[in-house]
Amino acid sequence: MNSAILQFLTLLVIAVQCVSIAASQSVSRPGFIFLPFEDKSDFEGKWDVGTDVPRFLSAYFKERFRVPSISPVLVKDFMNGRRAAAASLDDVKLWMELFKRFHLRYLIAGTVDQFDVSRFMTGQPLVGGYEAFKGEVRISYVVYDLERTAVSSSPVSVRKGEAAGEFADRSMTLTLFGKPSDRTIEFRDLDKIAFGSEDFNGTVIGQAHFRLAEHVSVDLENALKPLKGSNLSSSDSLLLYGQSLDNISLSLKPVIITGAIVFLEGKSVFINLGSDDGIYVGQHLDVFDEGRESTRKRKGEIEILDVRGPHLSHAQILIGHKELKVKDKVMVTLIKP
User: Fold this and answer.
1) Rounded-to-10 torsion of CA 237, 243, 244, 248
2) Are 316 and 269 in contact (CB under 8 A)?
3) What is 253-336's CATH topology?
4) pLDDT confidence bin for 129, thresholds 50/70/90
């Protein structure tokens, strides 16, 4: 074998090894890295909502999708460990360091646009009346594909969106002679509760966060196909899942909600599920015939356009518009705390 051929084969082996190393470094798993969000809300309490809101989302995603999810607290710890605390959160070099450390495909950045807990009261404050409470949280977010960003060396966004969660406590509490009720005291001391704790999750703002997280989850589940069917089968994934644990721990359970089509015209339908059933705009529901549960077959899919009341919503038919009819069953699985 002459020296030219030998030299060529040597260069070819080196090139193959370099490609192999580069490929191994770019391999990623389904999962999320949450950056701290920018806080644009008017909230003035003790909670750091720019960190705590995405931290809650991270814990929710981890349980809902069963994939590793790195919270903004762990991102801050990583930055402090690398002496990069002053680095800009939109610095692609920082993102690549996070990608190299955690090998997770998606990075989420965003803003907290609203974070509010409201108290409503009717009657005379010094005599007697009724009070109720409402929690609201609204965010904007961008999802980046770190695997494609590593190849292009510039940010590659794959999803932009807005989402909101709102929960109103409809049970009115009686107040007498200006004496604060237990719920009023809880409202005043709300931010003394640990964010994401079991006590927090039972408040109106905690319940609003569950609704927010589910809205974002459904949007990303439909947009990011690799999330569907992902699991923690490999030992590496299980290890990373354990390393991604934060001190927010959520216990979630799936609940199947069933309703029916009550009116149909063209591709427009009304169903007997609404706000009290956990229905929201943009949600997708499967449609089945009205036969026995054991023999039902999926015959279509609808998307919620407008929630008209506690048990009424307007939707459009996405699949099966020629087959659907009044009294067909609609079903959706909701994630409940």
Assistant:
1) 130
2) yes
3) Thrombin, subunit H (2.40.10)
4) low
